[in-house]
Every structure is written in C-alpha cells, then in structure tokens.
Design goal:
Strand content: under 5%
Distance between the termini: 55 Å
Number of helices: 9
Structural class: mainly alpha
Largest sheet: 2 strands, antiparallel
Strand order of the largest sheet: 1-2
Number of strands: 2
Order of helices and strands: EEHHHHHHHHH
Low-confidence stretches: none
Length: 246
C-alpha cells in the first residue's frame, strides 16, 4: 500500500476505513471493531488481551465462573444415573449385567464403576436420595475443584466404594452379595468437602453430622452397603487431602 493509498482493514482489504485500533493503530472496519474504554480495538488486539490476561482460579485450581452458572458436570452425572435407571426399568437385564459383587471383581472389574450408575429398580427413594445429595454437594464442590477434578473425584470415590465392599465383605456369603448405587461416590464427595472446608478454615460441623447420620443409617437399616459408604468416604477424604496439600 502506497503512502497516498486509502487505509484498508488488514482482515478485509477491500474495505476502506479511517477508524484505527486504539491499541495497535491499524485500520479496522466495522466488522472487526470492538468497543474499548476509549475508542475501539480490533479483534486481534482483543483476542491477544484476553490471552495475556491473568487466569483467575479458585484455591484448588478451578477456573473462576459466574455465580449463576449451572454445575454442568454434576447435572451430567445425574442425567446418566437417571437414564440408566429408566433403562433398568425397561430392561431388567441391564441391572444384572452391570451390578457389582466381590466374586466377579476379578473377571469383570469394570462393574466396580458401572454399579455406581445403577440403583434399585424396586425403590424410587434410592435414586431420589442419591440424586438429591449429588445435586446439593455437586453445586458446592464442582465450582471449587473444576469439572474435570470433580468428575474424577466422583469416579474414583465410586471405585473406592466398590473396594470397600470387597475388603469388608464377610466370607463366604458377602462375596456373592450384589451392590448398586451412587452412595459410595456421594460419600466420597461429602468426605472431600469435609477435608477441603477444614483446609480453608470453613465450618465443618454440618458435614460431620451428615456423614455420621448417614453412616449410622447404613449400619442400622438392612440392604444398605455400609462398606461402600465407608470405602467411598475414605477414598474421597484421601484424594481431598492430596489436593489440600498441593
């Protein structure tokens, strides 16, 4: 472009413009202009500024999000559990094919995880209670950890719950007792909140009381796998301890 040639937008060389970016000074057409504190900036400068801006994160590395943002990972996990539950009602073979018991842990180890997305088809309260607890704790914990860490904590807590069932099963009858449900993973999340709140100096009395009450229910009521609750809680607390120390 010669000195006498009219200025054109670098992105749209067929567009003559006399408006210049306040940051880089290059001509910028209306399509490439972005409002700035003074005048306008081009899209390239706006993108570079966003790239150079310091990354705001939570204390545990989660990207800062707006307060009204929905907990997407929590809702996704809930959606999977609900969809699987509907599938169980439609096809009972889904339950028998994905449930977990210690005697099949060696041959079909993936069931240690799939069982955490199943719930008792005979009791709507089973899935209702677990999904309510997941929604409450997820809405608090997911923004603190970020989506990826939250999902990993849920999944590893579920595995910890299945490990608790294996390690604490009575022999021989306990080895053939089937378990389903997200309780182990949910207990892992509650235990993680307890540890992280303690690390941040926040109130933990309510979480402790909730864990004790639900732990007691697991011992007092039949057909509840307290071993999964305990295994999930220990796993969640251990993982949260690692996060708290990093």
């Amino acid at each position: 472009m010669t000195a006498d040639a009219p200025p054109v937008c670098p992105r749209h060389p067929d567009y003559v413009t006399y408006v210049r970016c306040q940051r880089c000074g290059r001509p910028t057409c209306p399509e490439c202009q972005r409002p700035a504190a003074v005048g306008v900036q081009c899209v390239d400068c706006v993108a570079q500024a966003a790239k150079d801006a310091p990354r705001v994160t939570s204390r545990f590395g989660a990207p800062a999000r707006s307060g009204g943002e929905r907990p997407q990972a929590t809702l996704t996990l809930m959606g999977i559990c609900i969809a699987v539950y509907i599938g169980q009602l439609v096809n009972p073979a889904l339950t028998s094919g994905l449930l977990f018991s210690p005697h099949i842990a060696v041959d079909e180890p993936w069931r240690a995880l799939t069982a955490a997305f199943l719930h008792s088809p005979r009791s709507i309260t089973h899935i209702a209670f677990n999904m309510f607890a997941l929604y409450i704790i997820g809405g608090y914990l997911e923004p603190m950890l970020g989506r990826l860490r939250f999902v990993l904590l849920y999944l590893i807590g579920a595995l910890g719950g299945s490990a608790g069932v294996v390690l604490l099963a009575t022999v021989p009858q306990g080895w053939f007792t089937s378990v389903v449900g997200a309780s182990g993973a949910v207990f892992g999340l509650f235990a993680a909140v307890l540890v992280l709140n303690w690390r941040m100096g926040r109130e933990t009395g309510g979480i402790i009381a909730l864990l004790l009450i639900n732990g007691a229910i697991g011992f007092l009521l039949p057909s509840i796998a307290w071993q999964a609750h305990l295994g999930g809680a220990i796993t969640g607390a251990a993982l949260a301890g690692v996060l708290a120390l990093t």
